[in-house]
């Protein structure tokens, strides 16, 4: 872990105003069994408010805009892993987004009866994807069977299949956080990218010149690693 080096970088940032790209779940808030309840706490709300006044800050998340906005309020947001952008009060979606909104609704309606077959499964419809949450499924064989079922749905509708911590997700193909961040980056400015999941690895890989920070102990291409409990202290150090 390179946390000491990271905090040295934070101290040296007083003459540099970088763009900041922050994942939400697992980075700013912990991973929880009920993702619909993962509201930002008061400390985080104050921290984000301070950050937005000092830095050009983006929340980069797999959640859709409505959901994440309900959690944190009005900020620059890159949602659905990079399929939709809410920047300076304006919302823009990638070409073909409406098509996938319709597909995701159809998949959600057709697959919701799977909650009866796979005990503990919860299904969430996003505006451009479908999330199968496995946090309450304890049997590994059940999860394996579920993955095969979702894989067949992905093939049928030409959706991209992604598996992460307690989730199996169908999302818009060809979309990833790395490409999305590159679209809004200013090439003449430093960037700091912080995230914890496999989706954030795309952000690290496609932005190798940035200060990339992995939250957790897993293998990563990021330049630095930090434990979850040190993320907010690091952000506060940047503010100072």
Structural notes for this entry:
With 240 residues, the protein is an alpha/beta fold. The protein folds into two domains: 3-94 and 175-239, Rossmann fold; 97-171, Alpha-Beta Plaits, CATH 3.30.70. The chain is built from nine helices and twelve strands. It has helices at residues 3-11, 42-54, 65-72, 97-111, 114-117, 140-157, 177-184, 198-206, 231-239; strands spanning 19-22, 56-60, 76-79, 84-87, 90-93, 122-126, 129-133, 160-164, 167-171, 191-195, 211-215, 224-226. The strands form two sheets. Strands 5-4-3-2-1-10-11-12 form an eight-stranded mixed β-sheet, sandwiched between helices. Helix 1 runs parallel beside helix 9 (231-239). The radius of gyration is 18 Å and the shape is globular. 35% of the residues are buried. The model has no long low-confidence stretch (mean pLDDT 92).
Write the layout of secondary structure elements.
Layout: H1 3-11, E1 19-22, H2 42-54, E2 56-60, H3 65-72, E3 76-79, E4 84-87, E5 90-93, H4 97-111, H5 114-117, E6 122-126, E7 129-133, H6 140-157, E8 160-164, E9 167-171, H7 177-184, E10 191-195, H8 198-206, E11 211-215, E12 224-226, H9 231-239
